[in-house]
């Protein structure tokens, strides 16, 4: 009770003081009592200053909300990056003529047959450590995108192949570039495939 009264007398946040108590403890038997200290301090703090102390449960909820926001940002970034790569790659494989198109298609098909989540783990870690993306939240977007981009490109290629080549040829005759054809003509026609 003396510790709780001293903490409240100083009017410092409970979490900071709990951290100080935990770092000051040295023996394992003392560490078992940290939970009891935390509960006791929270009870005394609520009794003496009910409006000024945030309950422990609310702090845990705020922490969980922050973790959920991080997860949502990672998933949204992954979806956006994968969608952009799939649209560009699917259009290029379906409607553009370029060297190496068959080789890239074969490489994408071959990548679908390997358990990439297992075999690529070491390579992904090496690339991320060289780029300084270890323990960085946004560093998760790159491997998630890389692991799902092959199947996404094939899905979009199938969607783009359903659009007649005459539409692409007529846009080229009218003077539209490949990018303008993709954005202005093809993308509105395949928007249902983008949702998939």
What would you say this structure looks like, in words?
The protein is mainly α. It is 79% helix and 0% strand. The protein contains 12 helices and no strands. It is elongated. The chain starts with a helix and ends with a helix. About 11% of the residues have low confidence.
Low-confidence stretches: 11-32
**What's the N-to-C terminus distance?**
60 Å
Helix content: over 70%
From the alpha-carbon coordinates, what is the Rg to the nearest angstrom? 28 Å
Mean pLDDT: 76
Number of strands: 0
What's the helix count? Answer: 12
Work out the strand percent.
Answer: under 5%
Biggest pleated-sheet summary: none
Derived structural class: mainly alpha
Approximate shape: elongated
H/E element order: HHHHHHHHHHHH
Label this structure with key terms.
196 residues; 12 helices; single chain; 0% strand; 79% helix; mainly alpha; elongated
């Amino acid at each position: 009770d003396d510790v709780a009264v001293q903490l409240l007398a100083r009017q410092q946040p409970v979490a900071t003081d709990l951290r100080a108590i935990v770092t000051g403890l040295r023996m394992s038997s003392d560490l078992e009592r940290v939970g009891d200290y935390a509960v006791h301090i929270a009870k005394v703090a609520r009794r003496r200053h009910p409006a000024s102390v945030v309950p422990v449960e609310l702090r845990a909820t705020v922490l969980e909300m922050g973790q959920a926001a991080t997860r949502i940002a990672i998933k949204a970034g992954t979806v956006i990056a994968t969608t952009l790569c799939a649209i560009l790659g699917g259009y290029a494989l379906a409607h553009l003529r370029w060297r190496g198109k068959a080789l890239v298609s074969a490489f994408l098909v071959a990548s679908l047959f390997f358990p990439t989540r297992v075999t690529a783990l070491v390579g992904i870690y090496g690339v991320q450590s060289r780029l300084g993306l270890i323990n960085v939240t946004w560093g998760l977007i790159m491997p998630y995108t890389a692991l799902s981009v092959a199947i996404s490109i094939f899905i979009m290629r199938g969607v783009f192949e359903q659009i007649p080549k005459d539409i692409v040829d007529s846009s080229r005759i009218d003077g539209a570039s490949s990018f303008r054809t993709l954005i202005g003509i093809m993308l509105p026609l395949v928007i249902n495939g983008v949702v998939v």
